[in-house]
C-alpha cells in the first residue's frame, strides 16, 4: 500500500527494498523447520477451536456441533503454529477419512455412514475401523495470516498431514482433495456474453432456448445463475450440465495467467505437484458453492512419490498434469 501511495521515486525504491527485505526475513522465520504441526480435537482449548471456526474459508462452520464433527472420528484437522505466535493457527487443513474419493461435499458424510453402517452411530477415535479407511480427502485448507501470503505453508502442511494419516492408517492408498473453483461462474458468464457458441453446441443452444424460454441464452443464464434455485430444477440442470462441465474443464486446464493456471486454487495444487483428476457436477449445491462455481468442484490427486517431479514440470515447463477424462472434457470445447 505504501508503494502505491508514494509519489517520490527515491522513496518508492527504498520502500520496495524494505518490502523485499521483510519478505526474505518472513520466509526465513516461517520456514518449515520453525513450524509446529499440531492436531486439533474436541479436547483442544476453546480459544483455539474458536479460531479454527472463525478462520474456515471454504465451508463455513455452522455451530459447535458442526465443529465437533469436523475434529471428531473419521476426520483429521491439523494446523501449523510458530513459537513466536503460540495458540495461533497459521494454516488449517481439514481432512476426511473415507472408503473412496468423494465426488461431492455430501459424499464425505456418505462415506462415514457406509463405514459405520448407520448415520447416527457415535464412536471414539479408538473405534475407527482402520481396515475400511482407504482414502484421505483434504477438503478445506485456509491460510489465516495475510502478512504471510506467498509463503507456501499450505503445501508443506498437506505433505506433512499426508504422511501422518498414512502412518496412522496403513490401508490408505489414495490422497485427494475436494476443491472449490472460485471465480468460475464469473468467467463462464463472461464467455457466454462474448459468444454463446464458445460454450454451447447448436443442439444445446436449441434445447436451452426451449427450457429457458428465452432467445437470449446469455442474458437468461446471468439471471438464472444468480442464485442456487436452478439446481433444484431437473430440466435446467440437464440442459446446463454438459456445457458447464465442458467449460469448467477448459477453465481449469487451459485458461492461463503468465503461463500458469488462471484459477488460484488450481495453481496452488499444481505447484504442489498434484494431478487434476476429476471434475464433479453439483458437488457443492450450497449458495456459496453455486455462487462461486455453479456447484462444480474438482478432485486433485496427490501421488507423493511423483509430486516433486510433477511440481518441477509445472513450474519450469508450465505443464498441467491432468487425467485423460479432464483433458478430453477440456479439449472437447475446441470441437464446437
Automatic annotation (TrEMBL):
Name any one GO molecular function: malonyl-CoA decarboxylase activity
User: What residues does the Malonyl-CoA decarboxylase C-terminal domain cover?
Assistant: 33-302
Which superkingdom does the taxonomy of this entry point to? Eukaryota
Q: Name one GO biological process term.
A: acetyl-CoA biosynthetic process
Gene Ontology CC: one annotated term: mitochondrial matrix
Q: Name one Pfam family in it.
A: MCD
Name the PANTHER family for this protein.
MALONYL-COA DECARBOXYLASE, MITOCHONDRIAL, PTHR28641
Q: What protein name is recorded for this chain?
A: Malonyl-CoA decarboxylase C-terminal domain-containing protein
Amino acid at each position: 500500500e505504501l508503494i502505491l501511495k508514494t509519489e517520490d521515486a527515491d522513496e518508492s525504491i527504498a520502500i520496495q527494498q524494505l518490502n523485499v527485505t521483510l519478505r526474505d526475513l518472513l520466509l526465513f522465520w516461517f520456514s518449515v523447520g520453525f513450524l509446529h504441526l499440531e492436531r486439533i480435537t474436541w479436547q483442544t482449548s476453546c480459544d483455539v477451536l474458536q479460531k479454527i471456526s472463525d478462520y474456515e474459508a471454504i465451508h463455513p462452520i455452522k455451530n459447535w456441533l458442526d465443529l465437533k464433527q469436523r475434529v471428531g472420528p473419521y476426520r483429521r484437522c491439523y494446523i501449523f503454529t510458530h513459537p513466536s505466535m503460540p495458540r495461533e493457527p497459521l494454516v488449517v487443513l481439514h481432512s476426511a477419512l473415507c472408503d473412496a474419493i468423494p465426488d461431492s461435499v455430501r459424499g464425505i458424510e456418505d462415506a462415514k455412514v457406509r463405514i459405520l453402517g448407520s448415520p447416527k452411530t457415535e464412536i471414539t477415535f479408538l473405534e475407527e475401523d482402520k481396515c475400511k479407511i482407504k482414502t484421505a480427502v483434504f477438503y478445506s485448507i485456509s491460510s489465516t495470516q495475510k502478512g504471510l501470503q506467498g509463503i507456501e505453508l499450505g503445501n508443506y502442511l498437506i505433505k506433512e498431514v499426508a504422511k501422518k494419516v498414512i502412518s496412522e492408517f496403513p490401508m490408505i492408498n489414495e490422497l485427494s482433495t475436494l476443491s472449490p473453483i472460485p471465480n468460475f461462474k464469473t468467467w463462464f458468464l463472461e464467455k457466454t456474453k462474448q459468444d454463446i457458441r464458445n460454450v454451447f453446441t447448436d443442439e444445446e443452444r436449441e434445447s436451452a432456448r426451449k427450457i429457458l424460454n428465452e432467445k437470449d441464452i446469455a442474458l437468461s443464464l446471468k439471471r438464472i445463475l444468480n442464485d442456487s434455485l436452478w439446481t433444484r430444477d431437473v430440466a435446467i440442470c440437464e440442459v446446463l450440465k454438459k456445457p458447464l462441465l465442458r467449460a469448467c474443464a477448459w477453465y481449469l486446464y487451459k485458461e492461463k495467467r503468465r503461463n500458469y493456471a488462471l484459477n488460484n486454487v488450481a495453481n496452488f495444487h499444481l505447484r504442489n505437484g498434484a494431478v487434476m483428476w476429476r471434475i464433479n457436477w453439483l458437488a457443492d449445491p450450497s449458495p456459496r458453492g453455486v455462487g462461486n462455481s455453479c456447484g462444480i468442484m474438482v478432485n486433485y490427486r496427490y501421488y507423493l512419490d511423483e509430486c516433486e517431479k510433477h511440481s518441477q514440470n509445472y513450474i519450469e515447463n508450465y505443464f498441467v498434469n491432468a487425467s485423460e477424462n479432464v483433458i478430453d472434457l477440456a479439449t472437447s470445447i475446441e470441437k464446437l
